[in-house]
User: Fold these one by one.
Assistant:
Number 1:
Amino acid sequence: MSSDPGFVDFICDQVEGAGVISSRKMFGEWAIYSGHKVVALVCDDRLFVRPTPAGRAFIGEAVEEPPYPSAKPHFLIEDRIDDREWLTELIRVTEREIPEPKPKQRKAD
Protein backbone atom coordinates (compact mmCIF):
# COMPACT_ATOMS: atom_id res chain seq x y z
CA MET A 1 0.00 0.00 0.00
CA SER A 2 1.39 3.38 -0.97
CA SER A 3 1.50 6.26 1.48
CA ASP A 4 -0.84 9.22 1.23
CA PRO A 5 0.99 12.27 -0.22
CA GLY A 6 -0.90 14.42 2.32
CA PHE A 7 0.73 12.47 5.16
CA VAL A 8 4.16 12.98 3.57
CA ASP A 9 3.47 16.73 3.30
CA PHE A 10 2.42 16.75 6.97
CA ILE A 11 5.72 15.13 8.01
CA CYS A 12 7.73 17.60 5.91
CA ASP A 13 5.82 20.51 7.46
CA GLN A 14 6.44 19.13 10.96
CA VAL A 15 10.23 19.06 10.48
CA GLU A 16 10.70 22.11 8.25
CA GLY A 17 12.75 23.78 11.01
CA ALA A 18 15.47 21.13 10.64
CA GLY A 19 16.81 22.61 7.40
CA VAL A 20 15.99 22.23 3.73
CA ILE A 21 13.41 19.44 3.85
CA SER A 22 12.04 17.73 0.75
CA SER A 23 10.43 14.46 -0.23
CA ARG A 24 10.73 12.18 -3.21
CA LYS A 25 8.63 9.24 -4.28
CA MET A 26 10.75 6.09 -4.46
CA PHE A 27 9.62 2.55 -5.20
CA GLY A 28 6.00 3.40 -4.43
CA GLU A 29 6.82 4.98 -1.07
CA TRP A 30 8.60 8.18 0.02
CA ALA A 31 12.05 9.32 1.10
CA ILE A 32 12.41 12.42 3.29
CA TYR A 33 15.55 14.47 2.68
CA SER A 34 17.35 17.01 4.80
CA GLY A 35 19.51 18.76 2.26
CA HIS A 36 20.91 15.95 0.10
CA LYS A 37 20.70 13.27 2.80
CA VAL A 38 17.90 10.74 3.19
CA VAL A 39 16.97 11.01 6.86
CA ALA A 40 13.68 9.13 6.91
CA LEU A 41 11.23 7.02 4.94
CA VAL A 42 7.45 7.09 4.89
CA CYS A 43 6.04 3.64 4.16
CA ASP A 44 2.39 2.64 4.60
CA ASP A 45 1.73 6.04 6.23
CA ARG A 46 4.29 5.35 8.97
CA LEU A 47 7.46 7.36 9.64
CA PHE A 48 10.78 5.50 9.79
CA VAL A 49 13.86 7.54 10.75
CA ARG A 50 17.32 6.31 9.83
CA PRO A 51 19.06 4.91 12.89
CA THR A 52 22.09 6.77 14.23
CA PRO A 53 23.77 6.71 17.65
CA ALA A 54 22.70 10.32 18.30
CA GLY A 55 19.14 9.53 17.27
CA ARG A 56 19.06 6.55 19.61
CA ALA A 57 20.38 8.68 22.48
CA PHE A 58 17.81 11.38 21.73
CA ILE A 59 14.86 8.95 21.52
CA GLY A 60 15.81 6.81 24.49
CA GLU A 61 13.82 3.60 24.14
CA ALA A 62 13.45 3.34 20.40
CA VAL A 63 11.02 1.07 18.58
CA GLU A 64 12.78 -0.40 15.55
CA GLU A 65 11.19 -2.05 12.53
CA PRO A 66 12.18 -2.44 8.91
CA PRO A 67 10.20 -0.02 6.71
CA TYR A 68 9.79 -2.71 4.05
CA PRO A 69 10.74 -6.39 3.67
CA SER A 70 14.51 -6.99 3.54
CA ALA A 71 15.31 -3.46 4.84
CA LYS A 72 17.44 -2.81 7.90
CA PRO A 73 15.49 -1.69 10.97
CA HIS A 74 14.77 2.02 11.31
CA PHE A 75 13.34 3.99 14.23
CA LEU A 76 9.55 3.81 13.96
CA ILE A 77 8.06 7.10 15.12
CA GLU A 78 4.39 6.95 16.01
CA ASP A 79 3.63 8.45 19.42
CA ARG A 80 5.48 11.77 18.92
CA ILE A 81 4.59 12.51 15.32
CA ASP A 82 2.55 15.56 16.39
CA ASP A 83 5.37 16.96 18.54
CA ARG A 84 6.94 19.35 16.02
CA GLU A 85 9.88 20.46 18.20
CA TRP A 86 10.83 16.92 19.23
CA LEU A 87 10.56 15.55 15.70
CA THR A 88 12.54 18.47 14.26
CA GLU A 89 15.36 17.89 16.74
CA LEU A 90 15.39 14.16 15.93
CA ILE A 91 15.81 14.97 12.23
CA ARG A 92 18.57 17.49 13.05
CA VAL A 93 20.63 15.04 15.12
CA THR A 94 20.06 12.30 12.56
CA GLU A 95 21.17 14.46 9.63
CA ARG A 96 24.39 15.45 11.41
CA GLU A 97 25.53 11.82 11.64
CA ILE A 98 24.65 10.69 8.15
CA PRO A 99 27.58 11.06 5.75
CA GLU A 100 27.23 13.15 2.61
CA PRO A 101 26.09 11.08 -0.37
CA LYS A 102 28.87 10.00 -2.68
CA PRO A 103 28.99 11.90 -5.98
CA LYS A 104 27.57 9.95 -8.89
CA GLN A 105 30.09 8.67 -11.40
CA ARG A 106 29.78 10.10 -14.87
CA LYS A 107 29.28 7.47 -17.53
CA ALA A 108 32.08 7.16 -20.05
CA ASP A 109 31.07 7.91 -23.62
Number 2:
Amino acid sequence: MTAAYGDTALAARLKDLLGRRHPVAAAAVVTPAGTTTASIGADLAADFEIGSISKGVTGLLYAEALNRGEVEESTTLADLLPLGNVSAGGVSLRALSTHRSGLPSLPRSAAPLRRTVALWRSGVNPYGETLAELLDQARGVRLARPVPRYSNFGFELLGHALSAATGTTFSDLVYRRVAEPLGVSTLYAPANADELLPTALSGSNRAGKQREPWTGEALAPAGGLRASITDMARLTGALLDGTAPGIAALDPIAPFGRKARIGAAWVTLESAGREITWHNGGTGGFRSWLGLDRQAGTGVVLLTAISASVDRHGFTLLTDVTENGG
Protein backbone atom coordinates (compact mmCIF):
# COMPACT_ATOMS: atom_id res chain seq x y z
CA MET A 1 0.00 0.00 0.00
CA THR A 2 1.30 3.46 -0.90
CA ALA A 3 2.28 5.43 2.19
CA ALA A 4 0.24 8.55 2.94
CA TYR A 5 1.24 11.64 4.94
CA GLY A 6 -0.55 14.68 6.30
CA ASP A 7 -4.30 15.00 6.48
CA THR A 8 -5.88 11.54 6.22
CA ALA A 9 -9.06 12.65 4.46
CA LEU A 10 -7.20 14.73 1.88
CA ALA A 11 -4.72 11.90 1.26
CA ALA A 12 -7.62 9.54 0.59
CA ARG A 13 -9.20 12.13 -1.70
CA LEU A 14 -5.89 12.56 -3.53
CA LYS A 15 -5.61 8.82 -4.15
CA ASP A 16 -9.19 8.66 -5.36
CA LEU A 17 -8.83 11.74 -7.57
CA LEU A 18 -5.55 10.80 -9.28
CA GLY A 19 -5.75 7.01 -9.20
CA ARG A 20 -2.91 4.53 -9.63
CA ARG A 21 -1.36 6.55 -12.42
CA HIS A 22 0.17 8.93 -9.85
CA PRO A 23 2.01 6.90 -7.18
CA VAL A 24 3.89 9.96 -5.87
CA ALA A 25 1.79 13.10 -5.51
CA ALA A 26 0.78 15.84 -3.10
CA ALA A 27 -2.10 18.24 -2.57
CA ALA A 28 -2.85 21.39 -0.62
CA VAL A 29 -6.24 22.94 0.04
CA VAL A 30 -6.47 26.49 1.36
CA THR A 31 -9.78 27.93 2.58
CA PRO A 32 -10.80 30.74 4.93
CA ALA A 33 -10.99 28.05 7.63
CA GLY A 34 -7.34 27.02 7.23
CA THR A 35 -4.85 25.01 5.21
CA THR A 36 -4.71 21.25 4.71
CA THR A 37 -1.88 19.30 3.06
CA ALA A 38 -1.35 15.65 2.19
CA SER A 39 0.95 13.49 0.12
CA ILE A 40 1.25 9.92 -1.10
CA GLY A 41 4.45 8.07 -1.88
CA ALA A 42 6.68 10.75 -0.35
CA ASP A 43 6.52 12.85 2.80
CA LEU A 44 5.37 16.46 2.99
CA ALA A 45 8.93 17.83 2.90
CA ALA A 46 9.72 16.30 -0.50
CA ASP A 47 10.24 18.87 -3.24
CA PHE A 48 8.82 18.58 -6.76
CA GLU A 49 9.62 20.38 -9.99
CA ILE A 50 6.78 22.89 -10.37
CA GLY A 51 7.46 23.53 -14.05
CA SER A 52 5.76 26.57 -15.52
CA ILE A 53 4.26 27.65 -12.22
CA SER A 54 7.76 29.15 -12.10
CA LYS A 55 6.39 31.70 -14.58
CA GLY A 56 3.78 32.63 -12.01
CA VAL A 57 6.55 33.34 -9.50
CA THR A 58 8.39 35.40 -12.12
CA GLY A 59 5.15 37.31 -12.71
CA LEU A 60 5.03 38.14 -9.00
CA LEU A 61 8.63 39.36 -9.13
CA TYR A 62 7.81 41.55 -12.14
CA ALA A 63 4.79 43.12 -10.44
CA GLU A 64 6.83 43.67 -7.29
CA ALA A 65 9.62 45.36 -9.26
CA LEU A 66 6.99 47.65 -10.82
CA ASN A 67 5.62 48.43 -7.39
CA ARG A 68 9.09 49.32 -6.10
CA GLY A 69 9.79 51.57 -9.09
CA GLU A 70 12.76 49.45 -10.20
CA VAL A 71 11.32 48.93 -13.69
CA GLU A 72 8.46 50.24 -15.79
CA GLU A 73 6.08 48.38 -18.08
CA SER A 74 7.86 50.01 -21.03
CA THR A 75 11.35 49.01 -19.86
CA THR A 76 12.95 46.87 -22.56
CA LEU A 77 15.28 43.90 -22.43
CA ALA A 78 18.10 46.00 -23.87
CA ASP A 79 17.67 48.48 -21.03
CA LEU A 80 18.65 45.75 -18.58
CA LEU A 81 20.59 43.04 -20.39
CA PRO A 82 23.72 43.30 -22.60
CA LEU A 83 21.99 42.43 -25.86
CA GLY A 84 23.17 45.25 -28.08
CA ASN A 85 21.15 46.51 -31.03
CA VAL A 86 19.10 43.39 -31.75
CA SER A 87 15.38 42.86 -32.31
CA ALA A 88 14.78 41.11 -29.01
CA GLY A 89 16.33 44.02 -27.16
CA GLY A 90 13.36 46.23 -27.96
CA VAL A 91 10.79 43.94 -26.35
CA SER A 92 9.10 45.47 -23.29
CA LEU A 93 8.71 43.77 -19.94
CA ARG A 94 4.93 44.16 -20.16
CA ALA A 95 4.88 42.31 -23.48
CA LEU A 96 6.99 39.52 -22.00
CA SER A 97 4.81 39.22 -18.90
CA THR A 98 1.63 38.74 -20.97
CA HIS A 99 3.17 36.47 -23.67
CA ARG A 100 2.94 39.18 -26.33
CA SER A 101 6.63 39.62 -27.07
CA GLY A 102 6.77 38.10 -30.55
CA LEU A 103 9.47 35.76 -29.25
CA PRO A 104 9.20 32.04 -30.07
CA SER A 105 8.58 29.44 -27.40
CA LEU A 106 12.20 28.45 -27.93
CA PRO A 107 14.70 29.88 -30.44
CA ARG A 108 15.78 27.81 -33.45
CA SER A 109 19.37 27.96 -32.24
CA ALA A 110 18.28 25.89 -29.23
CA ALA A 111 17.35 23.02 -31.60
CA PRO A 112 14.03 22.34 -29.85
CA LEU A 113 13.11 19.34 -32.02
CA ARG A 114 16.42 17.60 -31.36
CA ARG A 115 16.06 18.25 -27.65
CA THR A 116 12.51 16.94 -27.60
CA VAL A 117 13.55 13.72 -29.31
CA ALA A 118 16.38 13.26 -26.81
CA LEU A 119 13.94 13.77 -23.95
CA TRP A 120 11.53 11.19 -25.38
CA ARG A 121 14.24 8.62 -26.07
CA SER A 122 16.48 8.87 -23.03
CA GLY A 123 14.93 11.34 -20.60
CA VAL A 124 17.72 13.91 -20.75
CA ASN A 125 17.17 17.47 -19.58
CA PRO A 126 16.36 19.51 -22.72
CA TYR A 127 17.46 22.72 -21.02
CA GLY A 128 20.55 23.56 -18.98
CA GLU A 129 21.84 26.72 -20.66
CA THR A 130 23.75 29.31 -18.73
CA LEU A 131 22.62 32.93 -18.75
CA ALA A 132 25.42 33.76 -21.20
CA GLU A 133 24.16 31.10 -23.60
CA LEU A 134 20.60 32.39 -23.24
CA LEU A 135 21.71 35.91 -24.17
CA ASP A 136 23.58 34.56 -27.21
CA GLN A 137 20.35 32.91 -28.35
CA ALA A 138 18.45 36.17 -27.85
CA ARG A 139 20.90 38.10 -30.02
CA GLY A 140 20.13 35.87 -32.99
CA VAL A 141 16.38 35.49 -32.69
CA ARG A 142 13.80 37.01 -35.03
CA LEU A 143 10.57 38.47 -33.70
CA ALA A 144 7.16 37.45 -34.98
CA ARG A 145 4.00 39.57 -34.71
CA PRO A 146 3.34 40.51 -31.06
CA VAL A 147 0.18 38.44 -30.71
CA PRO A 148 -0.60 36.23 -27.70
CA ARG A 149 1.87 33.34 -27.94
CA TYR A 150 3.10 31.31 -25.00
CA SER A 151 6.88 31.69 -24.74
CA ASN A 152 9.22 29.88 -22.39
CA PHE A 153 12.07 31.84 -23.95
CA GLY A 154 10.35 35.14 -23.18
CA PHE A 155 9.90 34.30 -19.53
CA GLU A 156 13.49 33.14 -19.19
CA LEU A 157 14.58 36.57 -20.44
CA LEU A 158 12.03 38.39 -18.28
CA GLY A 159 13.28 36.75 -15.09
CA HIS A 160 16.90 37.49 -15.80
CA ALA A 161 16.09 41.07 -16.82
CA LEU A 162 14.41 41.58 -13.44
CA SER A 163 17.46 40.13 -11.73
CA ALA A 164 19.69 42.56 -13.61
CA ALA A 165 17.44 45.45 -12.60
CA THR A 166 17.95 44.55 -8.95
CA GLY A 167 21.65 43.72 -9.21
CA THR A 168 21.38 40.05 -8.30
CA THR A 169 20.79 36.57 -9.74
CA PHE A 170 17.35 35.14 -10.38
CA SER A 171 17.89 32.45 -7.76
CA ASP A 172 18.75 35.05 -5.15
CA LEU A 173 15.85 37.29 -6.20
CA VAL A 174 13.40 34.43 -5.63
CA TYR A 175 14.93 33.81 -2.22
CA ARG A 176 14.98 37.44 -1.07
CA ARG A 177 11.56 38.51 -2.35
CA VAL A 178 9.45 35.36 -2.16
CA ALA A 179 10.99 32.47 -0.25
CA GLU A 180 12.45 34.32 2.73
CA PRO A 181 9.50 36.70 3.40
CA LEU A 182 6.96 33.88 3.13
CA GLY A 183 9.08 31.31 4.96
CA VAL A 184 9.13 28.86 2.07
CA SER A 185 12.54 27.25 2.40
CA THR A 186 12.18 24.70 -0.41
CA LEU A 187 11.23 27.16 -3.16
CA TYR A 188 14.51 27.25 -5.06
CA ALA A 189 16.11 27.24 -8.50
CA PRO A 190 18.90 24.64 -8.89
CA ALA A 191 21.33 25.50 -11.68
CA ASN A 192 22.47 21.87 -11.90
CA ALA A 193 21.85 18.50 -10.28
CA ASP A 194 24.51 19.16 -7.64
CA GLU A 195 22.34 21.97 -6.23
CA LEU A 196 19.32 19.76 -5.59
CA LEU A 197 18.26 19.53 -1.96
CA PRO A 198 18.27 16.12 -0.22
CA THR A 199 14.46 16.35 -0.33
CA ALA A 200 14.35 16.49 -4.15
CA LEU A 201 12.20 13.83 -5.79
CA SER A 202 13.00 12.12 -9.08
CA GLY A 203 10.33 12.30 -11.75
CA SER A 204 9.18 9.76 -14.31
CA ASN A 205 7.35 9.72 -17.62
CA ARG A 206 3.99 8.04 -18.03
CA ALA A 207 5.67 4.69 -18.63
CA GLY A 208 7.47 4.97 -15.30
CA LYS A 209 10.92 5.66 -16.77
CA GLN A 210 12.99 8.09 -14.74
CA ARG A 211 13.71 11.50 -16.25
CA GLU A 212 16.69 13.75 -15.58
CA PRO A 213 15.94 16.78 -13.37
CA TRP A 214 15.19 19.96 -15.26
CA THR A 215 17.84 22.26 -13.91
CA GLY A 216 19.57 25.22 -15.52
CA GLU A 217 20.48 28.82 -14.81
CA ALA A 218 18.65 30.11 -17.90
CA LEU A 219 15.57 27.95 -17.37
CA ALA A 220 14.75 29.00 -13.80
CA PRO A 221 12.30 31.90 -14.43
CA ALA A 222 10.26 29.89 -16.93
CA GLY A 223 10.29 26.37 -15.53
CA GLY A 224 13.19 25.59 -13.22
CA LEU A 225 11.80 26.14 -9.72
CA ARG A 226 11.16 23.38 -7.20
CA ALA A 227 9.10 23.37 -3.99
CA SER A 228 7.46 21.10 -1.45
CA ILE A 229 3.69 20.91 -1.09
CA THR A 230 3.98 22.57 2.32
CA ASP A 231 5.67 25.60 0.82
CA MET A 232 3.31 25.70 -2.15
CA ALA A 233 0.45 25.79 0.36
CA ARG A 234 2.04 28.78 2.10
CA LEU A 235 2.50 30.55 -1.22
CA THR A 236 -1.14 29.86 -2.12
CA GLY A 237 -2.30 31.25 1.19
CA ALA A 238 -0.29 34.42 0.62
CA LEU A 239 -1.78 34.79 -2.88
CA LEU A 240 -5.26 34.53 -1.42
CA ASP A 241 -4.79 36.92 1.50
CA GLY A 242 -2.81 39.44 -0.56
CA THR A 243 0.43 39.22 1.40
CA ALA A 244 2.45 37.71 -1.46
CA PRO A 245 4.90 40.10 -3.11
CA GLY A 246 3.71 41.40 -6.47
CA ILE A 247 0.12 40.37 -5.85
CA ALA A 248 -1.03 42.61 -8.72
CA ALA A 249 0.37 39.95 -11.08
CA LEU A 250 -2.87 38.03 -10.56
CA ASP A 251 -5.04 40.82 -11.97
CA PRO A 252 -5.85 40.22 -15.66
CA ILE A 253 -4.94 43.05 -18.00
CA ALA A 254 -5.26 41.54 -21.48
CA PRO A 255 -7.19 38.84 -23.36
CA PHE A 256 -5.45 35.49 -23.72
CA GLY A 257 -7.19 33.07 -26.03
CA ARG A 258 -10.91 32.94 -26.68
CA LYS A 259 -12.28 33.02 -23.14
CA ALA A 260 -9.32 33.75 -20.87
CA ARG A 261 -7.46 36.84 -19.67
CA ILE A 262 -3.92 37.18 -18.44
CA GLY A 263 -2.06 39.24 -15.86
CA ALA A 264 1.67 38.79 -15.34
CA ALA A 265 1.76 35.08 -16.29
CA TRP A 266 -1.39 34.23 -14.31
CA VAL A 267 -4.43 33.25 -16.39
CA THR A 268 -8.02 33.94 -15.35
CA LEU A 269 -11.02 32.10 -16.81
CA GLU A 270 -14.49 30.93 -15.86
CA SER A 271 -14.90 27.37 -14.62
CA ALA A 272 -18.15 25.92 -13.27
CA GLY A 273 -19.54 29.43 -13.07
CA ARG A 274 -16.65 30.71 -10.97
CA GLU A 275 -13.74 33.00 -11.91
CA ILE A 276 -10.51 31.02 -11.46
CA THR A 277 -6.96 32.37 -11.56
CA TRP A 278 -4.45 29.63 -12.27
CA HIS A 279 -1.24 28.30 -13.76
CA ASN A 280 0.00 24.82 -14.44
CA GLY A 281 3.39 23.28 -15.08
CA GLY A 282 5.04 20.33 -16.74
CA THR A 283 8.57 18.99 -17.03
CA GLY A 284 10.01 15.68 -18.20
CA GLY A 285 8.94 13.91 -15.05
CA PHE A 286 6.51 16.18 -13.18
CA ARG A 287 3.18 17.97 -13.52
CA SER A 288 1.71 20.71 -11.32
CA TRP A 289 -1.40 22.85 -10.98
CA LEU A 290 -2.26 25.85 -8.79
CA GLY A 291 -5.70 27.44 -8.88
CA LEU A 292 -7.41 30.20 -6.92
CA ASP A 293 -11.00 31.26 -6.46
CA ARG A 294 -10.11 34.68 -5.15
CA GLN A 295 -13.67 35.72 -4.41
CA ALA A 296 -14.30 32.66 -2.26
CA GLY A 297 -10.82 32.76 -0.71
CA THR A 298 -10.06 29.17 -1.70
CA GLY A 299 -7.09 27.63 -3.45
CA VAL A 300 -5.75 24.23 -4.49
CA VAL A 301 -2.30 22.92 -5.42
CA LEU A 302 -1.59 19.54 -6.99
CA LEU A 303 1.93 18.19 -7.56
CA THR A 304 2.88 14.84 -9.08
CA ALA A 305 6.18 13.12 -9.86
CA ILE A 306 5.02 11.73 -13.18
CA SER A 307 4.42 13.49 -16.48
CA ALA A 308 0.65 13.02 -16.61
CA SER A 309 -1.53 16.11 -16.46
CA VAL A 310 -3.38 17.05 -13.27
CA ASP A 311 -5.19 20.08 -14.72
CA ARG A 312 -8.63 18.46 -14.82
CA HIS A 313 -8.19 17.10 -11.32
CA GLY A 314 -7.15 20.51 -10.02
CA PHE A 315 -10.20 22.27 -11.41
CA THR A 316 -12.42 19.51 -10.03
CA LEU A 317 -10.94 19.68 -6.54
CA LEU A 318 -11.09 23.48 -6.43
CA THR A 319 -14.75 23.45 -7.48
CA ASP A 320 -15.57 20.90 -4.79
CA VAL A 321 -13.67 22.82 -2.13
CA THR A 322 -15.42 26.07 -3.02
CA GLU A 323 -18.90 24.65 -3.30
CA ASN A 324 -18.82 21.98 -0.59
CA GLY A 325 -16.10 23.11 1.77
CA GLY A 326 -13.80 20.19 0.90
